[in-house]
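#random but structural
TW: two for the price of one
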Amino acid sequence: MLKDNYKELAKIAQKTYNDSLEEAFKIVNFNEELKAEYENLPSAIGETTEDYGNPAKHPFEIYLQTVPSSVLAITERDPVNLLADLKSKKISCVEVLKAYMTAAIIASKLTNCIVEFLPKESFEFAKSLDENYESKKDLPLYGLPFSIKEMIPIKGRSITHGSLCYLDRIVDYNADIINILQKSGAYPFVRTTNPQSLMMLECVSYQHGRTVNAFNSDLTSGGSSGGEGVLNGLYASPFGLGSDIGGSIRIPAAFNGIYGLRTTLGRIPTADYFSCNLGSTTILSVTGPLSRSLSMVELVMKTIIDSKPELIDPSLTSIPWKDTAKPQKKYRIGILKSDGIVNPTPPVSRALEIAETKLKDLPNIEVIEYKPFNQEKVMEILSKIYFEDGAQDFLNTVKETGEPILTQTTWAIDGAKDLTMHEQWYWNLEKEKFRKDYLKHWMSYTNSDGENLDAIIAPVYPNVAPRHEQGQYWNYSCTYNLLDYPVLVCPITIVDESKDLPLKNYKPLSEMDEFHYKQYDSPASFKKAPVNLSVIGLRNTDEKLIEIGKILEKEIGDIFNPNGKSENCPTNN
């Protein structure tokens, strides 16, 4: 653990990024015209990591104008279809890597979503795949690059999880999940940003600065897998890996209009990641994929689980991936319109209406109004057990370097108490009691024919992506970490300036509700922001959520293209 002043360590982190960027430029085809365009791009990367640059208002628009059409022809393609092209040798692995690396370089300047490029390793891996095509072409993910959250160990790189003191923690191994994916023909090509402490719905740190939203830079990218949300939201990665202990996959996926899966604990590897509070097993983080393609999310899950990761990681359970090509004849789906503490803002409420209306029109779907259950208890429990040590483990990471604690970190750890052993036991018992009571509530929706509730659809967050440093409510996401329920977030619509007007004469339910009501001052403030919803199931029903996600995808279509599904990049309304 380093003890140098954080400002000096931040310079080291910046140099690591810049050096990797220079190496990345060597493998891509930036002609003089593209170089000039790149140099003139508005940048979300400042002179220092305390300077947040001067990003474009709507990064995606500039991204589409800048990335060459030859690159977009590859990166816009649905990753599953691109995989078919790779397997049939219509395109080489090196060509695909060069295209995605080009896109990622441009995406990074516009949004500050990458902490480090991996050009040498990824180029050698792609080249080897091309040279060994006949023996490798049948690998399930042959030739696809993917992005990884900075906290995921990769050989030869420092893993800081947002704390500069760990810049010297250079690991000599790959995380199990990286090894599994590489054996399946995929390979990491960039490492993406995550925030100080990881426990925030923002993505800002003294290691990289601030990551801005892909669609509106006034808004947050979400956290803690913020870089993943943005890079995949820009279509500059086929898929990425994030982690989730309170919403850290779902929130960034939702704020950037893509799919993200909070998996059930024990289905895919996570045990060898780094974070604060290592050793605590009260609420465990899970891994999950993020992608603009639901089919890609499913293929990644199937590939990892088919590799039998439980033979590598003893914390996993042996549950085969179920075939989603044969869905149930009927689904019973609940709609949770509010948790009773903070009501959703107009665009989120409209998204719920869209989903409910579409599903009600289907003969194989029964839609039920679902009521919240004792949501106040969720935060009472989690406020005690998220930081059982009173946040001392995290605070020690900034103690010697003088690294200031950021606003959102302060909000997350406020009130944390160092629990005694017996206090920990007590709150763990409260957790287990809540899980049993909640399951009983869920099962109370079983009908007279004995048909259970298959899933509920609910907000991911009370609002679309909020302004920076204003993400201050976890209940819609962290409830399912407490319960260990899988959640798939799905894009539903985009903020509509004519439809999503603020409510008049509104009477807030609570102080936090009033905070969010005042935050949503005008749909113009949230222009172009995507609106996603959660599809939530009982433990180990991850596959069923993808089945329901496919139904929503078919009925709603591509939210960025009102004329229907398309492989073209969104132009946004």
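TW: number two ↓
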Amino acid sequence: MEDLQLYSYQEEVAQRALLGENIIIWLPTGGGKTRAAVYVAKRHLETKPRAKVVVLVNMVHLVDQHYKNEFSKYLEPVYQVLPVTGDSEEKDFFGKVFRTADVVVCTAQILYNAMINEEEDRHVELSDITLLIIDECHHTHKDTVYSKIMRCYVEKKLKNQGPLPQVLGLTASPGTGGKKVLEGAVEHVLTICANMDSAIVSTQNYRQDLQKKVPRPRKEYDITERKPMDPFGDHIKWMMLQIHEYMNLPRDVKLRECGTQEYEQDVVLLEQRGVSESNRVIAQCALHLREYNDALLISDTLRMIDAYNSLKSFYNNRPTMDATDMFLVGLFEENEVELKLLAQDLSCENPKMGKLESTLLNQFGADKKSKGILFTKTRKSVHCLYDWIMGNEVLQRAGIKAAPLIGAGNGISHMTQNAQKDTIREFRGNRLNLLISTTVAEEGLDIPECNVVVRYGLLTNDIAQLQASGRARAQDSVYSVVAQRGGRELRREMINEHLEELTKKAVAKVQEMDERQFRDKIFQLQREELLRQRLAEQKNFAKRNRFSASEVQLICRSCLKTVAQGSDLRLVEGAHYVNINPEFKREYKVGGQIVLPREFEDWEPGCKIICNNGNCNKDWGFEMKYKKFAILGTLKISSFALRTPVEQKTVKKWKDVPFPVGDFDFSTYCQEHYPEMLD
């Protein structure tokens, strides 16, 4: 166990926690919040009889990071520290292993699942915990899993159902909750405090020490002018106009300017309307218009050829079922050559790319030992920027060694956690000097100090912006914003600066409150939140039980054919909605094998399932082989519409369907569908 030393400002913010109070430690990114939490945990373990510490994180990769870099490093071998994620075998008997450890580092979902699980080997009560540490606790807001855990805590507290753990929250910024006036920002900070049942603490006596340890980067605005001519974008807009005319828009439909987020919102709603009215012309045209609008947005941020390639990828092997499909596919094919030629015209290239090149050249070079992160909006833009940088001879001569860094997941464009770790390891070892990342690198990942941070084509809130700038922690570091003059990104950056200052004022107001006044306000907010939650639960229950499952039909969202009944559905392991009707196999054909980055105890993925109606080929999900026997279709709700007794509609998530779905029972399934196997 290594010796644990704190800076003066860390000792200051930890003092009230050492006295047993519930507090939120507010320190900037790089300020050592987690180290202060380890110190509090160590003292707690030393002084509290039968102490049990639980550290909650909101991202899987943070479990291993906090375990290795902080809690194990300073607490073992004197205390047993156990990391648990959804990939850990320990999760299946969490309650049992929980009782053997002194400190458990886990995702919040693991703890919440244990709290609502009634099996003895898996169940955990809040009263079993003596110190609960919540990382990035500004997420204890709305209906996150942090909020669900702390809602249980507050309800027990108000009912005097103790004992309850001491709570320690960690955040780089509580934010303003989108509020733009001081009164609203104060209310938001108080709401976070109420949800955490904690006061918020920051350094008062050692601010200069903190500033020396975590210097703020020099902020630069690298501004470009609007592109003087855009024949590529103009041609795409002309094609979109052809689609507008073909679909014969209803008079009550008004679409805003092409190439904007507002237009995207309009066509998303239009596609939903087309599906709900069984109007395939409108639904399919809206779907294609969204792709063209996405190409305009890509062209505005990246290269025109990236926008062209995005459209080309969408139309590759695009199925044609009827005259609408033939028109849409034909429109692209007739204009494909022209679009490609226009996309290759360098005289009309996006000026932001040139500005980004000069920004990077100002920071990187043979005589400079720079290390930085280039933040951008989407995974697609990460890969496009990576290809551009690696193919740019000027940037390569400047010694830029870049790599993409995106979120972990199961999709083609995701990175595995091991790939993330390998990339960060190479960055730390100086084999790479530039990470091109989505917002995944803003919060949580253990990335070494950078002296260059560039934000490119991003619209994020004040918390994300603050965390991104906090990555530039080296002395004399630079935080650059590449944006178009008067553009949305620039306006958002300016607003976020104001919100950051507003957060500071709001926290100061909360800290100045009289203790009695603060506690009364917290109590009021907690009571109001519990009442709101009960009303929401009643509303959700009524919504989920509006129809019986047998009254609802599932319709393919592309061809609009009825393919299943709501009564065919079951829920596997609380996460996967499957169709248990053996006849369902007639409705789909199988595609390629699905490969997931980890194995599961009771099931394994099979092949992709695709609509079998003519040339529809809509991707519905994949086959699941359960207990090496049952073949079940696992469905994506985004691929279907629902026909109820009163309307036809789409929903974003399975939790929004207006009928109950029962849990999958393997024994019942075998008895109903394969009774001969049981004889």
